[in-house]
Amino acid sequence: TISELSIAAALALTSEISWESKLRRETTIIELEKRGQKRVRFGNEMEKLEKAVIRNCRLLRVKADRKALEKARREKEYIELLSSRPPLIWIPLRVHAVWERMGVKLTCTILASPPPQVTWYKNGVRIDPRLAPAGKYRIQNKFGMLTLDINSKAWSAEIPRPVLQNKEALIMAAWFCSCFTGLLTGQEADFAFSLKPLFSREKEPFTLSCFFSSDLLQYQRDISWFRDGEFLKDSDRQQIKCLDREASLTVLGAYKEDEGFYTVRVPTLDGYNEQSAYVFVRDAAAATAGAPGSPLNVKCHDINKDCLLLSWVAPSDSGGSPIFGYFIERCEVGTDEWVPCNEMPVKTCRCPVLCLTEGKTYQFRVKAVNHSGISNPSKASDPVTMKDPSEEKRVMSKIKIPLPPTNVHASEIKEDYVVLSWNEPDPRGKEPLSYYVEKSIAGSNSWQNVNLETAVNSPRFALFDLVKGKSYCFRVRSANKYGVSEPSLPSEPITAGTTLAPLPPPSQVLAFRDSKTSVVVHWDKLKEGQEPLGYYIYCREVGTDEWQTVNNKPVTCNKFTVPGLQPGKEYVFCVKSVSEAGVGDSSPESDPIIVRPAISRPSAPRDFALLSCGKNDMTIGWKAPKHKGGGKILGYFLDQHDAVELGWHEVNIRPIAQRVYKVTNLNEGHFYEFRACATNMAGVGKVSEPSDLFKCEEWTMPQPGPPYDVRFTEVRDANLMLHWEAPLYTGTGPVTGYYIDVCEEGSEEWKQLNKQPTASTHMRVSDLETGKCYIFRVRALNKAGIGPPSIPSDPVVVETKPGTNEIELGVDKEGFVYMAFETPDMCDSSEFIWSKDYEGPPDPNRVKIEDKGNKSKIILKNASEKDLGTYSVEVTDIDDEISASHTLTQEELDNLRKISHEIRNPLIELISGWNIDVLEKGEVRLWLEVEKLSPEAELHLIFNGKELSSTPTHKINFDRANGLIELIIQDFCDDDKGTYTAQLQDGKAKNQFTLALVDDSFDKVEAEAAAKQRDWRRKQGPHFIENLQWKVTEDCEVLLTCKVSITIQLLLCIFTKEDKGIYKAVVSDNRGEDITELDLSKEALSAKPLKVQPTAEGIRIYSEVKYYTDYMKTTWYHKYKRLESGERLKSGSTMDQIWLHILNPTDSDKGKYTLEIFDGKDSHRLSTDLSGKAFEEAMIHFYLSFFVKLYFKPLAVNCHCNTVFTIFLKQTLCLTCCISGDPYPEITWFKNEKVVVFKDRYKMDVKGIVVTITIEKVCSDDTGKYSIYVKNKYGSETGQVTISVYKHGEEPLELREK
Q: Which of 560, 611, 901, 1002 is most buried, judged by most C-beta within 10 A?
């Protein structure tokens, strides 16, 4: 360090002295001489002493300068000498003698300029720290001293221990180190950007890339990647690439085992540079909703010939319900078949696997299970080959019948199983051994063979069926082809283990701010003796109930940075311990924390400018720090330096709040430079670089000074808003305007944007090229001319940043018009600065500003035309520029005021207006329906100017929950004629609805009420349910019928003119009587009213008649114009119908249609109106029929759709439909809404347009609803029928009802 400082000082002294330094030195000497001359005249002894001191100081300074110059000259010659020679090893390596488990540090000193590239070798082989165990080698090169540090832990791992444990071994190591040097050919590349956390998902690839500031030098291309300190190599699953300015690591098909801290190392002359980032691998979507995540880190332990021990780690995501077990699967390498290893789920994350085959290679995977389902399988374990681990060390003997095993004990005791272990017989024969295990309840001498059917080939055996609470003793017998040994000595009593409980959660979970998208979570580790496999971290946004998993691979530390959070949102965190028993309970929640950057000291101010200058004062301005440290800048400290002096002087003791300051008491004609530092709550930041030298000389130029503080807001695609401050020095006249210049970054060509000067201190710059980087400056203008330009603005990329928010317009619940802005980023001290027309804050008498969290709202107290204009907002105290603006137009204001009026004067919405119903007893019900009302809603019912109240004769019902209002009038009479008004009020909302019940409307209701009242009274005694009516039977007999409680019939066999007359039926008892009459004295028209039927060709108008003969004459009229049959009109008749067919109807076919029937004596007319809604519905059906052309005609069953049919068991059922369509439709049959599969008894036959389904030997299971669904590109249609199957002799329900 001393050598480096001395060389730096010498170089500084030997460099050429600038004119400023010469001027400063000459001025100092002259000033000292003047001060000495002035003080001679006083003749004071103190003055003489001071003069002597000054003279001696000057002499000492001159001597020191001469020595420094001489030293610098020698150092310069020395450096030039080294540069012309190859590197020299000045102090070589020496031999070291070290003890085992000790570290060693090898050092040597070299002389070279420039610094060389150094490579270490051991026994002629290059030492590469990446290929060695982590931390084994550490290489440094500082100021010519080369150091190779070999870690003591690496020695103990590399050097085997001696056989004799009590003796120490002296290891002599002679290291021959050589250095190959080469001159630097270029500047070393460094990281251009920091690595950021990456989020991936299981079975998906991810790529981690880093970029460099320049091309990598040749020796820097040997880039290394690490995951959690483990060196990563290029393989089929992970690909490592290195380009000139980019290095990347791609993982194909990620697993949760790939999660962790990834580090990239780039070699440098002094060692290496590295960066790290955490890669998160989330669970893949489960096949079953609610299933847990997949387990991870499946590993094999204690591998023997036919068994092994398998362990894994529980997943972080339980799927919403607890995980109660795991299923294990195995697969032989070379096959794709996964075989289950356990029938019942394993409760813990560790389990023995038995019944494996010696010599085969296996892989294992695990699935978790909860009440919702089974998870995806874990990543397969590394392949393991089943073999005898003691085979190579075993000593064979000539023994034939084996000896019994020894040391039978339980090597592992769990709740579900016990693993027995023992030692092989010693000595043992050459023949392969197998073992038989026997058990006995402790205290008894009754032994039971456990594995009689399957012998054990390894000295391990797992038992899964032990009774909890009981103690057992075990013994083992050896067996080979010559026989079975005696049993071994019994083991100690063994009891199945208790339930393995999860570890308790950690305590003291604390969250700290880190960055604008991350939080650092810290917790206390568990107590000693509780060794978890790691910890899972979870987070939840305040206000929600769903916990999100942070890491899917347990972390072993007690501190973790949680990235990927939403800026400005509030979160809480918790931690869970992970062990063999699974994932433990959740820790207590941390205190809520808002995601914002941690407060740090600000960076240095920059870009100092001289804004005005007097004889003895200067006004200095500067730009704010680029990084404010996450807090408000509390002020600035300014220092000044006179060019003729050596030291800096403080300008202010207290912080300056503004970035403009007038420095006084300066010497006219002197040159000064300035520097500053900013301060916030975290402390004082870095000191800036010195400004340029400014001469203290009064400005007298007629042009204005430079504007300052040029900044930009509202950066969007192709445009931005530019702001600046007016110059402090105005020259000979006021500033009349400004010119704005622009320059692309990297260019020195400035272009003037505005042809005419702008008078304001802001301007919207448009028509910029999106994505390009620009720099702006401003020049002021007065009557004397254009002044000097301002300091250029910061570079800005003209594009809309992702997540940029705009100002939102709306009306609140109170009816006030507001404009709101939500910022994606802010700090605790951030404020929202609103401005109108960029001239300052809006008038507080007209607006009210409310800030809540990261959202600010400006409310117009009384919105009017005075509020029109452009409103802008900025967020302070953040590093990135966040701002927006909106111009409130007259149209927008009118719409908002309309909405405001509706909110302030709301109306209760009407669903159904006044309705009149006449009830069965002749009561009149007046009712209306509105939207649902609150329980506090009020009703005032006004009748002819007077409010009604509920009485027995006028009952008022008000159902607020359903919005129903009804008035029931018992005896409706002339007193109830008038106007009814319902006045409603629900909070601010109100409305009223009026019903005028007068004149014809009242008379109609009164008559209907009286008729129903009479009918109801009639029905209280004996009465006719059906009045007299007649019909002609198939035998041409006239049948008169009426119905009381039974049907009464009168049959007229031959109906003649003598039978004409009035027929009367009377029913009576002691309660009264009822009469019904039928007049058969007049001629009756048999034709029914006209009907309209849409068809595929047009519209058909027809009348059904009971009979039609040729002597009857029919004539059709349209709007009183007689119609004749033609191309578009077809008329005709059948025995039971008279019809008119309109082909391809148009709007001209609307109107009234009349059918005139002449029976030889009288003319009868039937009319229908084919216009309005009737015509529209007919045309819609016509178009549907035209495009679809699908119709159904059941044949086998004489029925229509939606009809019930009966059939008896073991009969054959046929359902037939006729269909048509162009293109021919697709056909699907359904039974009870399930597709019919045609096999066995079900058959389908399609012949042309006839589709038949046949069911042979029907049974009770064939009962149900059958439907046919046909579809083509124009539409679809469905026909259905219900079939009921009964036994022979059983009367169907339908027949019993008839």
A: 611
Contact, 900 vs 809, CB < 8 A? no
Cα angle, residue 990 at apex, residues 987 and 995 outer, rounded to 5°: 145
Secondary element (H or E) of residue 1213: strand 1213-1218
**Residue-wise DSSP of 21-74:** HHHHHHHHHHHHHHHHHHHHTT--HHHHHHHHHHHHHHHHHHHHHHHHHHHHHH
The bridge status of strand 924-930 relative to strand 910-918 is: antiparallel
Which residue has better confidence, 1158 or 525?
525
Hey, is 512 helix, strand or coil? strand
CA 544: distance to chain centroid?
14
pLDDT of residue 1187: 41
Residue 641 predicted with pLDDT over 70:
yes
Q: Is the dihedral of CA 1190, 1191, 1196, 1199 positive or negative?
A: positive
Residue 1007's φ and ψ, nearest 5 degrees, are: -65, -45
Closest CA to 620 of 673, 668, 677, 657: 673
| CB-based contact 423:459 (threshold 8 Å) | yes
Confidence of residue 1258 (pLDDT cuts 50, 70, 90): confident
What gap in Å lies between CA 133 and CA 153, rounded to an integer?
A: 10
**Higher-pLDDT residue of 681, 175:** 681
First to last CA, the chain: 117
CA distance 1151 to 1101: 13
Residue 337: pLDDT band with limits 50, 70, 90: very high
What is the C-alpha to C-alpha distance for residues 430 and 650, in angstroms, rounded to an integer? 94
Please answer whether residues 330 and 413 qualify as being in contact, where contact means their C-beta atoms are separated by less than 8 angstroms.
Answer: no
Q: Which helix (H) or strand (E) holds 104?
A: strand 104-111
Does residue 178 register a pLDDT over 50? no
Q: What is the mean pLDDT of residues 805-830?
A: 91
**Residue 537 reports pLDDT greater than 80:** yes
Report the distance separating Cα 364 and Cα 370, nearest Å.
Answer: 20
Give CA torsion, residues 973, 979, 984, 988, to 10 deg: -170
Q: CA torsion, points 151, 154, 158, 162, in degrees to nearest 10? A: 80
Separation of alpha carbons 1178 and 1151, rounded Å: 13
Q: How far is CA 84 from CA 88, 91, 118, 351, in A?
A: 12, 20, 19, 70
Segment (H or E) for 1001: helix 999-1019
Q: DSSP class of residue 1177?
A: H
Token representation of residue 1208 = 């008896």
Backbone angles phi, psi at 153, to 5 degrees: -65, -35
Evaluate if residue 1109 carries a pLDDT over 80: no
Buried b (16+ CB within 10 A) or exposed e, 745-760: eeeeeeeebeeeebee
Is pLDDT of 654 > 80?
yes
Residue of 209, 217, 224, 207 lying closest to 266 (CA atoms): 224
**What mean pLDDT value characterizes the chain?**
83
Structure confidence at residue 8 as a pLDDT band (50, 70, 90): very low
What is the 8-class DSSP label of residue 894?
A: H
C-alpha to C-alpha distance for 24 and 693, rounded to whole angstroms:
13
pLDDT at 773 over 70: yes
The position carrying tokens 């362990």 is 311
* pLDDT digits 0-9 by tens, 589-605: 999 999 988 888 999 99
Residue with tokens 């949680």: 562
Least confident of 10-24, 219-233, 631-645, 954-968: 10-24
Q: What is the pLDDT of residue 1047?
A: 63
**CB contact at 8 A, 964 and 927:** yes
Reported as a single tens digit per residue, the pLDDT across 558-592 is 999 999 998 888 999 999 999 988 999 999 999 99
What number of helices (H) and strands (E) belong to the chain?
A: 8, 91
